Amino acid sequence: MRGPDAVEEALRRLAKTEPEIHAWVRVDADGARAAAGRAPEGPLRGMPFGVKDIIDVTGLPTECGSPLRRGRIAAADAWLVDRLRRAGAVPLGKTVTTEFAYFQPGPTRNPHNVHHTPGGSSSGSAAAVAAGVVPLALGSQTAGSLTRPASFCGVAGYVAPVGAWPTTGFAGLSETLDAPGLLAAHVADLASVIEAVDGTRTEDPPAAPRVLLWPGTELTEVAPEMLEALRRTGQALAAGELGDQARTPLLAETHATVMAYEAARALAPEAEHPESLSDHLNDLIRRGRDTPTADYEAALALRSSARARILDVLEDVDAILGPAAPGPAPHGLGATGTPILSRPWQLLGLPVVTVPGHRDQNGLPLGLQLIGHPGRVGRLLGIARHTERVVEESAG
């Protein structure tokens, strides 16, 4: 979906799906047409993409799903938007986010079943790709904001290692945890965009990838169908077991401490207007304000030691494979599901690829996540592409 007609095709698909899916907060049709006409020659020339509405696009509002940011016009593109423009891609508009990329849902529905949540906070971006409107959309992750909607909507997702891609032009929650990311239909699509953004080339996977299985059941109840999808895929990859090296319950708790403490400070101006914030966000800010600085500093120290430990593990294996969410997208639109299975890995700042392809008995997607070494993104992408093929073969 590239070239001079791609924007028009995206607009046609958007007009057909948007009345039911509600993935977009603003469509810049005229701006996209004009940008397509002057797009530079590049690997992504003419590719339309959606932009999560916490990310700046020149001349468009960045409203963060909140009335407190209504009408704030971006003066410049975010770093990631600029990189994509330089590669020839064209922003089509802004996609729905939960309030300040936290828990309060927007209006977006899951394209696979509109009575189920698309996840959060990158809900609009995941749904826009799943509905076939755009081949690419931008998201972000602080807890499970990209991995979870990718899983629920049945698309591929990429969370960059924390610090690898600048968050310039992003409205963030936590400087320690925030990371940009991408959503696309397949892993190969992600790989081509990542190469265009930062030059990372996907490596051919080894004949026998070294993968460790992590079921995540020590953190939460994981649905039997998700565990079966993980088991079948792990068996096909001849995966071993991660064991208890990661100590994920402690990491999940530590993530929550860091996120609350930093979010309370990042959103201090907004916190002066609690009546305009959801109960979810007011509670996060309250917990962050009540967290002693000594506890926050201890959490950062634990993060540092745990990261060193898991990087040692990832020196000897290619990836860790686990469920991207506890199960299929929950029924209802009043909540976005839990990010618990992403919290440990986001705390450690590791790259994650969500691999689509599995379904439950009702046809709802079940995504798996591959966690890799931040210095070996090309290898992780190769393993993810191979894993996606394994999933497709087992599903077929």
Question: What would you say this structure looks like, in words?
Answer:
There is one protein chain. The chain is 40% helix and 14% strand. It is of the alpha/beta class and 396 residues long. It has an eleven-stranded mixed β-sheet, with helices on both faces. α3 links the parallel β2 and β3. The longest helix has 24 residues. The mean pLDDT is 97.
Overall pLDDT score: 97
**Strand order within the widest beta sheet:** 1-3-2-4-6-5-10-11-9-7-8
**Oligomeric description of these chains:** single chain
What count of structural domains? Answer: 2
Q: Classify the beta-strand content into a percent band.
A: 5-15%
Give the CA-based shape.
Answer: globular
Judged by helices, strands and strand pairing, the structural class is: alpha/beta
Instruction: Kindly identify the CATH topology of the largest domain.
Output: Amidase signature (AS) enzymes
CATH class of the largest domain: Alpha Beta
Fourth-level CATH superfamily of the largest domain: Amidase signature (AS) domain
* Cα distance spanning the termini: 25 Å
User: What is the succession of H and E elements?
Assistant: HEHEHEHEHEEHEHEHHHHEHEEH
Question: What integer value in Å does the Rg equal?
Answer: 19 Å
| CATH structural architecture of the largest domain | Alpha-Beta Complex
* Count of DSSP H/I helices: 13
Biggest pleated sheet: 11 strands, mixed
Task: List low-pLDDT spans.
Answer: none
Number of beta-strand segments: 11
Helix percentage: 25-40%
